[in-house]
Structure formats: C-alpha cells, structure tokens
Amino acid sequence: MTSTPDLPPLLAMRGIVKRFPGVTALSGVSLSLRAGELLALVGENGAGKSTLMKILGGACPPDEGQIFLDGSPVSLSEVRAGVSFMALRGEILGFAGLVVSGRTELMQAIFGATRALGGTMTLAGEPYAPRTTRDAIDRGVCLAPEDRKRHGLVLPMTVVENASLPGLARFARAFWLDRAAERRAARAEVDRLRIKTPTLDQRSVNLSGGNQQKVVLGKWLSMGPRVLLLDEPTRGIDVGAKAEIYRHMAALAAEGITLLMVSSDMEEVLGMSDRVVVMHERRITGVLPREGLTLQRVAALMTGSARGAEGDVESAVTA
Question: How far apart are CA 95 and CA 110, in angstroms?
C-alpha cells in the first residue's frame, strides 16, 4: 500500500502514557499514520502493543497524551456492547477474535476486575454480579491473565508464596500462619501440575515461562474453582510446555471445571475448544460447534465479513 507523504497524518497519537498498578505499560508513545499507509507494530511480549491498540480502539483510556484524527483531537470513549453466551459444566469454550475485539475485557468483567456496564450473569442458575475480584474468587471464578509476569504472579516471591497467595486465609491460625499446611497445599499443586522447581522456596522469576504458567494455574486450582478463565494460556512458552498445559486443561474439564479460553493461536482454539465464541468489535458474531469448525469460518466471523450462531443464548456463565 502507498501513502501520500505530503498530506498531514490521518491518525496521530502523541505522548501516550498508560499505567497499571506497579508498572508503566506505555511511556510517552507517539506514532502517526497517513491515508493508504499500512503500519506494522512489532515488539516482544509485554512491550505494550496490545495496550496501545486497546487505547486506540477505545477499550482502554490513556492516562496522558492525545489522539488526533484528521488533525483534530478526539476522545475515544469506552464502547458499550452487549454479549450473550452460555458455558457448560466441563466445557472448554474458546474465544477467538482480533486484539481489540473485547475478549480480554469480557474475561475481566466476568472476574470482577472491571465493572460490566449492563446486562446480567448467572452462575449455576444463581445471579452472579461480582463487584470485586474477591467476589468472583469466593464464587469459584478465577482468572489466569494474559500477562502472567505482570498480573498473574509476584515474580520476586517464591513458588509456595505465589501458590498460596489467593487463599492465605485458609492457613490463618489466630495470629499466625500455618506454614506447614501452606507448604503441603503448594506441594500438592506442584506435584499435580509437574511444576519443575528445585524447591518450593525457588523465586518464581527464576522459573521457565511454562512453569510460571503452571504456578498461576496451581494457585487457582488450590481454591477449587468452578470456572477457570484462561487468557492466552500458552503465550510465550515452548512446544513441550504447551502440550502439558493442554493435557491439564483437558483433565480439568473432565473433572467438571468450566474453562473459558481466550487465544490468538488459531490452532489452539480449533484444537482445544468444544465450541468457539467469535468476537468482532466487542460483539459476538458467531458461536460455532466443534463439528465443522474450520479456520475459514472463524476468520470470516473475526473480521466481521460473516455472521452465524447456534441461535439465541442467554447472558449466562453456567457451571
């Protein structure tokens, strides 16, 4: 594609800053795009590419900076869009879509990390409206986030400390913690998930990516979840670790845990999902059964060039 360099930018971002608790995701990012130009945005995992696109798509407001369209400053407010789906007990329900399709935001709303702007959810037939992540955890809904290093683990902490963090109250004994019980619980998950660590006191930062992801899973499995939300569960890990994660996912589904999996890996979506929810511009464009599931059908729904669903489904998460 060709652009017209003598014309002003069609789109410009100037000095964009975005901070999350404990980390600055974007620090003074600027870019411009002219009509007819194709701009590639590249960088390693955690560089801030997705965050920048979410800001540009209106899903995430910047803390500082301005966005210009045709030379005029604009404010991209949050897009309000309703989605409806049902997940079944013991099902792996995949979510496919482009980066700014709203999949991660949906998982965060289900987990109580962000407030839903409208609609209703049910869990096992009962109303479900988490105001905080603790509300969700107490109801058995847990999230393994997209960025495990920033939001899934406290990297300087040990394996046992990360594994027990969500449920420390279980080990409280009046004015002290039962460290022996804490270590037994952590050891059970290390053995269950075959986490490769020389000791429970190994700092999580020193583990491989695959084993870090297993620690994230282990801390939630120790809580006895009913619904496990997996946002990019195998991103940045090697092929062998991926295969292990897939085996664990299948085993958890067989135990009756409902898994909602967001993934940008189409082979992963097609291979692991019992059904696939496809999203485009924060709306569901189709819910596809495993039978007849093809990359072509998913791609058409992801880009908005086709629509198709199994029929109306209620706004519910059923486990």
Answer: 14
